[in-house]
Amino acid sequence: MALIYGIDLSQKKFDVSFRNEGNVLVHKIIKNNLNGIVSFLEGLPKGVLLCAEYTGVYGELLLFLCNCLNVPIALVGGYEIRHSLGLQKGKTDKVDASRIREYGERFGDKLTSTAYPDEEMRELKELFRLRGQLVKERKMLLTHEKTKPSMPYNSILAHQIANNMAESLKQSINALEEEIQLIIDGNIDLSTNYHLITGIIGIGQVTACELIIKTGNFKEINTARKASSYAGVCPFPNASGKMVKKSQVSNMADKELKTLLYMCAVVAKSRNPEYRLYYERKKLEGKPYFLIMNNIANKLLRTIYSIINSGITYRLGHVVYDPRHNENVA
Q1: Burial tier of 263 (Cβ tally within 10 Å: 0-12, 13-18, 19+)
Q2: Could you tell me if residue 286 is left (phi over 0), alpha (psi between -120 and 50 degrees) or otherwise beta?
Q3: Is the entire prediction scored with pTM above 0.85?
Q4: Distance CA 46, CA 71 (A)
Q5: Annotated domain spans of the chain
Q6: Any idea where the Transposase IS110-like N-terminal domain is (predicted)?
Q7: Class of the CATH domain delimited by 3-110
Q8: DSSP class of 288
């Protein structure tokens, strides 16, 4: 069994908890910079597995250097760590590092090494994240400007500056989208999957990029079932003893991806005859609107993963036969 090092990350330093050769608990504080991390990693014994709580940018440098020096590291969500150790009281960086180590020792068989994204995927994430921020800022400006006609007085200068800012943001968004498209077109794997996805009626460019980024180009989240659970469109049973309630989707989901899939479901219902017929059939059965749209989003994900795995372009009206009856299919 690998020796587990529990790491609690913060901006300027990280706390490390591990057991030494005498099975005595040791606590160390390492500076979260290049020199501090390299010195720490080079001094590690063989057969070590680092276990750290995923905290976004604070662990980026550590993850990158671990991959460069071939030191295995597993990043785990904080929610999973907190709810796997039972009732806990008190919180300090030293205690958190010890709890992360304890989690790694208990569930070492479930830990998987985390890989740092390659350069193209990393740049794609950064550009797409910035695009999303600029889109929100431009939307706020335009929404505020729409309320101006109902006001008795308006500032001409404020109106001009707001319009100039909105136009500048639009140009920046267009420049980001062009660069994102260049990155996708310059990579065979990204380009192939991107064009396969956007060939589905209802899936647009933004949703395609979001899916590629969030799923690691369909390698990290490699099944439609995992993707639907991640996006929050997969219903889970809700029953206990004789009490059986309706299945519900989990609130622990990627809200941005779920919103995009809902918008895609709306477009698919309107423009794709297959999904329109499905919607009308479920509507006649008395199913609630949002339940039907959730099911359509789920069906879209299954379609996406099906064409990604097969490499076959989406064809409207394609009939999928029951594999159990293949011998009867001419």
Answers
A1: middle
A2: left
A3: no
A4: 9
A5: 3-110, 119-186, 188-330
A6: 6-140
A7: alpha beta
A8: -
